[in-house]
Amino acid sequence: MKEFRKEDIYNLDQTGVVAFGELCLRRVFGEKGKKCCGGKKSKQRVTIAFLVTAAGSKEAPVVIWKSENPGCFRGVLKNNLPVRYFSQAKAWMTSEILHSVLAVFNRKMSMEGRSVLLLLDNSGCHPEDLKGKYSNIKIVFLPANTTSRLQPLDLGIIKKTLKCTTKECSSIMF
Questions:
Q1: Model-level pTM?
Q2: Do the strands 137-141 and 84-87 form a parallel or antiparallel pair, or are they unpaired?
């Protein structure tokens, strides 16, 4: 890592969260201030992946949901969103989606004349064949069973910036 500047050391990680619309549906018909009870928790998930530098800059987040054309995007061009949107039946990151994201990222780094280091965990959607595939991205996999201690995005950054407590979420919804 010594040969790279902080601006050229990236980390990519993804997390699954309860789909916001589903979260709202569980509370819509209740009275404000009362807890919802009964029913099942939503199994609807959305995956969000972040690509950030050691210096704190970031690329547009990747959002993966099950629907190819969600109703909330009606009349909106997906290319104009502030995120990169993908659909996948179970809303999971796949190696195909990751290849697509990294191909675009590699083109951008090439156009900027930059070579970068990308730290990845050993998740199933991060195949070993990524190494050496991209001209401007050097990929390094973290050792097995060390992600929770070594991966920058797994050390609370995602949790702090994305996930919220029930109280915080309900103040956003109402």
A1: 0.72
A2: unpaired
